[in-house]
Amino acid sequence: MLDTEFERVSLPISDAFTISRGTQETAENLVVRISDGSGATGVGAAAPSPHYGESAATVEAVLPALLSVVESVGDPHARQRIERDRKDVIADNPAAHAAVDIALSDLAAKRLGVPLYRKWGLDPDATPMTSFTIGLDSTDRMREKAAAAADAGHEVLKVKLGTDRDSEIIAAVRDAAPDARLRVDANGAWTPNEAIRQIDALADHDVAFVEQPVPAADPDGLRYVYERSPLPVAADESCVTLPDVPAVADRADIANIKLMKCGGLGPARRMIHAARAHGLEVMLGCMIETNAAIAAACHLAPLLDYADLDGSLLLESDPYAGVPVDGDGIHLSALDDRGLAGTGARRDE
Ligand SMILES: [Mg+2]
């Protein structure tokens, strides 16, 4: 017997977050709880992205149908059957599916009395550091934000680009954080030829890689950039679900996988292994999301080359505790000490 419920939570972002497509001041997440009637509750959350056709309203509209599948199967360990039945009822809406999958995974791990990463046998010492994202702003503000992030101990910064002053921004950020490992994300803002010019200039500032230089709608452009770029190329908007992995294997060096794009931990794990099989490096990213969602991604961190799991760090405050994340890394082994299995618990509970 499983009981389910969900609620919408409005999470103010500490500093309005801007990328080449627009600005966001609040993150609307949907938190799902699944209880087994004997005191264990699994928690998960959806962070819907309008870019992938979802909103808080679309998640709210489909969650009752997805959760009725969970209740009718009634077993948190029957994730394969529940996933198949969920997809039969609602084919798309990946963030809504992810929230349910995370909450079920959390409940299954809690019933077994281990954190998720230990259920999978993963090595907590193999987690890469997460990057901290510097959103678009005036060049001076981006310089200040980069200096503040470096002061706070973040050694890896991901800089949003896609403006008419990209080279000025990267010079200012490099100046403010001379020792940081820099990555950049254009969110598809460049044309292929512009991307080559930009990436040539970025290479002079010791940038590690470039994410989504051209729009996902231009796969030939992505290959054109990949074949000419002096820096590795990561595919994010071009790499959404499992079939995209082989499709980007000759167009990118790195697959950026997100639970909210692919529909949860099960699909994300399949994408990670598919990416490895196609010779891609693996990055796990996030939306702006509460720990009730992002903690799940953190449990996969030992499988990654690159982590971009700073969504909760960008919030003014997060009502959910999760995996401790800071400039030193993603601290999975801290969960054993706290006895916190699975994903987030409310801080005030
Ligand atoms: Mg991206």
TrEMBL record:
Annotated Mandelate racemase/muconate lactonizing enzyme C-terminal domain residues: 139-232
InterPro entries the UniProt entry points to: Dipeptide_epimerase, Enolase-like_C_sf, Enolase-like_N, Enolase_C-like, Mandel_Rmase/mucon_lact_enz_CS, Mandelate_racemase_C, Mandelate_racemase_N_dom
Cofactor: Mg(2+)
Pfam entry (one): MR_MLE_C
Transmembrane segments: none
CDD domains documented for this protein: L-Ala-DL-Glu_epimerase
Keywords tagged on the record: Isomerase, Magnesium, Metal-binding
PROSITE patterns membership: MR_MLE_2
Gene Ontology terms for molecular function: metal ion binding; racemase and epimerase activity, acting on amino acids and derivatives
GO biological process: amino acid catabolic process
Family of this protein: Belongs to the mandelate racemase/muconate lactonizing enzyme family.
PANTHER family: O-SUCCINYLBENZOATE SYNTHASE (PTHR48073:SF2), O-SUCCINYLBENZOATE SYNTHASE-RELATED (PTHR48073)
Name of the protein: Dipeptide epimerase
